[in-house]
Specification:
heterodimer, A: alpha+beta, six-stranded antiparallel β-sheet, 24% helix, B: alpha/beta, four-stranded antiparallel β-sheet, 12 helices, 13 strands, 13% strand
Chain lengths: 97, 411
């Protein structure tokens, strides 16, 4: 998967750490399962549109929906720049898995 | 996927029948009328002002048309000439559109603010309020209903006491206008602020303020009025005194149409929303691992409530007097709007809101709902709550679908 674009999002709290990423393809079941290696995965496969949330070891939270090319990322407040760099680098990993 | 809208406490959808047509017709006609023709029945502002006056049972010249309730609350609070050490009593249930103007005056002028907390039964604490009134407040600001819990506050008797204590009374009726009767005289409200895009089901960017003749507000904005242009200063008469600049006339044409619809159907709306409140509340309450934030603290331990209490960072002279007790008050749909806040245990509210929207097509609000203080009392910090706010226009099957979706999240 390759990152096509990213944009900052607002939420109810401080939106400085919330981003929306768009990828070149939708999240497959296999992509979602692979992310379990990054931290804890909650995968709701039985929902009408299956969704997932990954809480990475550095505190980054990734939320998305299966078959949708977008996801929402909340970076940790303490180290947002490093976490963002780490997150973007990881998609190199995912694309070659 | 079918989309279900449950954020009517934020902005109503769909709008009242005929609003879109009224806005479009106004925009398609040349703007020959200034919007300031106080005698012209063809004038959209004139008609909207008179419709609002009918709805509120007040004189039209005391109705100020503004871009929304936030604007109205700023005009009211900033226009009162509050001074250093003046006491303002408000409550923890208020929206930031009350809290932030007051906080600004606290920082800049040194006014004092006291926040009435919630008692154990989740109602505003009457004994603390009575104590605060002894300190002769200059202003009392209360909302008619919380935008978080939907709980309707007893503003009539509370404002009566406030006026006896010499205070000006300011009612934030953003959540209630169009849903239940709001009559400033009966409620003893000197100033009444309302929104056009919630219960009235009018266009975004509409709202206003009723000013009782006994109260004089200094204008926050001055400038063009379209009439009395030969005067050096801003006209003093109401409502021009508080309406500077070009108003959004098409939007008020739409609001006028919405008010006429609401006034014809208000009894049906109230009845339908009472039934819906009951259905939604009971449906959610039956789900294990769902905690509704309204009068039932049985799912919270004393330690959890104390932790929430300790997180309060606001100036809170009154808060420390509150004693928390377990309460299991049954909800009474006659005391509330169809606005229900809850959490799904084991799932943070942002995650639950994301799942409802993306997986089930249900659009609700998550977080603090711009009312941060109430969450300290509810024990819903730091994530806030999920909020469902249907309306009379929400199909019954939407409520069933929403309850079922929450049940699946909670499994």
């Amino acid at each position: 998967m390759k990152i096509i674009s990213s944009e900052k999002m607002e939420n109810c709290f401080d939106g400085d750490f919330v981003f929306k990423y768009i990828f070149d393809a939708g999240w497959t079941r296999e992509d979602i399962i692979r992310m379990e290696a990054w931290g804890s995965l909650r995968y709701y496969e039985s929902f009408p549109r299956p969704m997932f949330q990954v809480t990475c070891s550095d505190g980054t939270i990734i939320k998305g929906v299966q078959n949708d090319p977008a996801c929402r990322i909340i970076f940790p407040r303490a180290t947002p720049a490093a976490a963002r760099e780490n997150f973007e680098a990881r998609f190199g990993e995912l694309s070659v898995l | 996927m079918r989309q279900i809208y449950l954020n009517n406490a934020g902005s109503a959808f769909p709008l009242a029948p005929g609003v879109e047509e009224a806005v479009t017709a106004c925009m398609r006609a040349p703007p020959l009328l200034s919007g300031r023709d106080v005698s012209g029945s063809a004038d959209s502002l004139y008609r909207c002002r008179h419709s609002l006056a009918g709805l509120l049972a007040v004189s039209p010249e005391q109705v100020v048309l503004l871009p929304g309730a936030t604007h109205g609350l700023n005009v009211a609070i900033l226009g009162l000439d509050l001074r250093k050490d003046d006491l303002v009593i408000t409550s923890v249930t208020e929206h930031n559109s009350v809290l932030r103007p007051l906080a600004r005056l606290e920082d800049r002028l040194g006014i004092r603010i006291a926040y009435v907390p919630l008692a154990a039964d989740m109602k505003l604490d009457a004994s603390i309020y009575d104590d605060l009134l002894k300190e002769k407040p200059r202003l009392v600001v209360l909302n008619h209903a919380s935008n978080v819990t939907g709980r309707i506050n007893p503003v009539g008797p509370w404002f009566k006491k406030a006026k006896s204590a010499g205070a000006v009374t300011l009612l934030d009726a953003s959540q209630t206008v169009g849903r239940i009767p709001v009559h400033p005289h009966e409620l003893q409200a000197d100033l009444t602020v309302f929104s056009g895009h919630k219960g009235l089901r009018g266009p975004l960017g509409t709202g206003g303020l009723h000013v009782a003749p006994s109260v004089s507000l200094a204008p926050v904005l001055v400038g063009g009025t379209g009439v009395k242009s030969d005067l050096r200063g801003h006209p003093d008469e109401m409502p021009l005194r508080l309406e500077a600049g070009t108003p959004n006339i098409p939007a008020f044409a739409g609001l006028d149409r919405a008010i006429r619809y609401i006034m014809k159907n208000v009894s049906d709306i109230t009845a339908a929303e009472a039934v819906m409140t009951q259905k939604l509340y009971r449906g959610l309450a039956e789900i294990e691992h769902v905690h509704i934030f309204d009068g039932d603290l049985s799912l919270q331990s004393d330690a959890e409530r104390q932790t929430a209490w300790d997180r309060a960072t606001w100036n809170q002279t009154a808060w420390n007097r509150t004693a928390w007790n377990r309460a299991e008050a049954a909800p009474n749909e006659t005391e509330r709007l169809p606005t229900i806040s809850f959490q799904v245990m084991g799932m943070d509210t942002d995650q639950a809101g994301f799942a409802l929207r993306e997986s089930f097509g249900i659009h609700c609000r998550t977080g603090l709902h711009c009312a941060p203080l109430i969450h300290t009392c509810l024990g819903s910090l730091p994530d806030g709550t999920l909020r469902f706010s249907p309306s009379f226009a929400s199909p019954s099957e939407d409520i069933d679908h929403a309850i079922d979706a929450v049940r699946r999240l909670a499994e």
